[in-house]
Amino acid sequence: MTVKSVALSLADLTDNDGVLAMTASQDKTIRNNWQREEVLALFNQPFNDLLFDAQVMHRRHFNPNQVQLSTLLSIKTGACPEDCKYCPQSARYDTGLEKEKLLEIEAVIEAAKVAKASGSSRFCMGAAWRSPHDRDIPKVAHMIREVKALGLETCMTLGMLSEEQSEKLASAGLDYYNHNLDTSKEFYGEVITTRTYQDRINTLANVRNSGMKVCAGGIVGMGEEQQDRAGLLMELANLPRHPESVPINMLVKVAGTPMADQADLDPFEFIRTIAIARLMMPKSYVRLSAGREDMNEQMQAMAFMAGANSIFYCEKLLTTPNPKANTDMQLFERLGISPEPFHVDKSNDEQEAELHQTLADVKTDSQFYRAG
């Protein structure tokens, strides 16, 4: 078969949005029984073959030229009792981060307005807690309701949740809850000792059982081996139901944390991880998350080719830098990528005017913090 005939065949199978047509009987790609040897075999594929397979899989389920935009706000910063070796929020490490109390609802609403006017469809709120106190749940539930009233999807990451807490957040209307596995079971003890891997699995189960959507991923570049990256993806893909959102974070090395001097991960290994996440969890949004500040445009473009279709779009990811929003839009334009559309009830001119007014009204420029 010639290159031209292959292109024609793909064109015949593709709809106007670039999504490959597929019957229900053809969609046998959703699995929850992956073995480590299978995942390692994917890691050992020739790079171009792996990216091609991931791109084909991506087109089966998503428009390949659209990326979902989320904004992340730290609603409570620092003084976390956990000992995660990568995290500047831990009270155990001197990173120069100033701790802050839970934000007032007015500050959260202002930040959400900016996010929406800037084009984000989902507003994520993170608090540096081991787990929320029951007394905090009404406050965060109020935040959820107010942000949803703006027409945004909502997501929170607050640490471990009980069944009752999960149900209360779901009742408030929370769409997504983020709780990362971080790494493989085998490497986990090298990263954190103050909560177990099973604690994280239990929280994900509580979130899923409450009816909320699951956002769960991990961090690469922490000194783990390839088999650990395979183990992380295997754990995520073998959950009873795949997470709807899978953030893949590159370690952000922060001075004062035990991982500040960790060696850099090979960029191609990061792209492989994105591609394999796409192949193993075909219908999940794969988010190019923390670490994007240190990725050049070519690496980000390759990540989109590998199947990443979600980014955090804001000044900072809780407490680590993120590329500026206008830089993202410039890259999107050059790549022919557009933000995934969501319902709006205003014209472009009205949205632009709203953005300028909101930015003028915001009283602080330090609302965005840590990586999630």
At CATH level 3, the topology is TIM Barrel
Major β-sheet annotation: 10 strands, parallel
Q: Give the amount of beta strand, in percent.
A: 5-15%
Question: What gyration radius follows from the Cα positions, in whole Å?
Answer: 20 Å
The percent range for helix content is: 25-40%
Helix run count: 13
The first-level CATH class is given as Alpha Beta
The number of distinct structural domains comes to 1
Q: What spatial form do the alpha-carbon principal axes imply?
A: globular
What is the CATH superfamily?
Aldolase class I
Low-confidence stretches: 1-13, 22-26, 316-322, 344-348, 354-372
Q: What's the SSE pattern?
A: HHHEHEHEHEHHEEHEHEHEEEHEH
Structural class: alpha/beta
Instruction: Write the CATH architecture name.
Output: Alpha-Beta Barrel
Give a short summary of the structure.
By secondary structure, the chain is α/β, with parallel strands linked by helices.
Protein topology:
Blueprint: H1 3-13, H2 36-43, H3 47-61, E1 66-76, H4 105-118, E2 122-127, H5 137-148, E3 153-157, H6 163-171, E4 176-178, H7 185-188, H8 197-210, E5 213-215, E6 218-220, H9 226-237, E7 245-250, H10 267-280, E8 285-288, H11 297-305, E9 310-312, E10 316-317, E11 320-321, H12 325-335, E12 338-339, H13 348-361
Parallel strand pairs: 1-2, 1-9, 1-12, 2-3, 3-4, 4-5, 6-7, 7-8, 8-9
Antiparallel strand pairs: 10-11
Helix pairs in contact: 2-9, 3-10, 4-5, 4-13, 6-8, 9-10, 10-11
